[in-house]
Amino acid sequence: MQCQLSAHDGDHFGLLGDDGMYGAALWLRWHGMSEAELVVLPDCPARGDESCCLFADHAERHTWEDVPEETPCTG
Ligand SMILES: [Zn+2]
Ligand SMILES: [Zn+2]
Question: Which residue in 3, 7, 53, 74 has the most C-beta neighbors within 10 A?
Fold first, then answer.
């Protein structure tokens, strides 16, 4: 599982799927070597040229703000 966020501090988040949920998705949250936990988080409401694939109040940039050459967070 790879963290979906751009390089950042704090908890890492990997998307498991939206599982048919409307406006929310199932995420795996972990920090360092600690055990990961399942969390249901509301979708990020931000919209640019395309919608953001992350959850509400996530750290760092929205997915549509990511610069392709930049290395994503590897958790
Ligand atoms: Zn991360
Ligand atoms: Zn976002």
Answer: 3
